[in-house]
Design brief:
The chain is built from seven helices and twelve strands. The protein is an alpha/beta fold. Helix 5 packs parallel to helix 6. The two termini are about 35 Å apart.
Length: about 250
């Protein structure tokens, strides 16, 4: 899936958050966006998914050349867009398996068979080192921060999206859980190599597990510099207060 964001301006309660934001992500590409708090990174992820709390005042978002601004969130999900939330919500009364199976069926013309569904979800839960009892528990209810993030990756693996947004995936994950989650993501990307990825983070730790081909530094609602992984290393050392010469990576390794 190719996603293009063109000169996007976005407001929340009359406050401008994104300012002429532009970015193109082609199939098979992994892009990382880094930036300080309040610069609009999470806003970007929610606008791509169609969150009605955000108002697009100008610009466009295109998937494979077609605008998606008029599409509701569920319609964007049917196209294959998936957002792994920074703070996944819990829903009492709806089991994890019910939620995931309903989401799969809403995205497909033919309902998934029960046997096939159970076999796949049990295998993916094992891959993520989750307890099998989580299939039957209410969605994220009583889950730790790490369990909620693993549950997001479980949903990703079951839904098989074409464009994935990870909003601060490493938040709430210990080192072992981060390694398990990233191994599952990398395995997914090997199985579905045309998948596009937008990875939003503050830190380079996760980028050591999921290697981006493109890194963007964001500030004041716009991208102020783009580069390869060397840009992430510069940001880690010097912060967000300047742009960098990316000619020499060794000085920051």
């Amino acid at each position: 899936m190719k996603l293009e964001i063109k000169d996007l301006n976005v407001k929340v309660a009359e406050k401008e958050i994104l300012n002429k934001f532009s970015l193109t992500i082609n199939p098979s590409e992994i892009h990382a966006i880094m930036g300080p708090n309040g610069t609009g990174k999470s806003t970007l992820s929610r606008v791509i998914m169609g969150d009605e709390n955000y108002t697009v005042t100008s610009g466009d978002i295109l998937v494979d050349g077609k605008s998606i601004l008029s599409l509701a969130t569920d319609e964007r999900a049917k196209l294959g867009i998936f957002l792994c939330y920074q703070s996944p919500v819990s829903i009492e009364g709806i089991s994890n398996s019910e939620f995931i199976r309903t989401a799969i069926n809403s995205n497909n013309d033919k309902p998934v068979g029960l046997y096939e569904f159970i076999k796949n979800i049990e295998a993916n839960i094992n891959d993520l080192h989750m307890d099998q009892s989580m299939i039957h528990r209410s969605l994220n209810s009583g889950f730790s921060g790490g369990e909620r993030k693993k549950n997001e990756i479980l949903q990703m693996k079951m839904l098989k999206p074409k464009f994935i947004i990870f909003d601060e995936l490493d938040s709430g994950l210990d080192v072992d859980s981060l390694k398990i989650v990233c191994e599952n993501i990398n395995d997914y990307l090997k199985e579905y190599p045309d998948t596009s990825v937008l990875l939003i983070t503050h830190y380079t730790r996760i980028l050591e597990f999921i290697k981006p081909g493109f890194v963007h530094m964001m500030k004041d609602g716009m991208i102020i510099q783009s580069g390869d992984y060397s840009l992430a290393k510069k940001i880690e050392k010097y912060g967000y207060n300047e742009t960098f010469d990316l000619g020499d990576v060794n000085e920051v390794e």
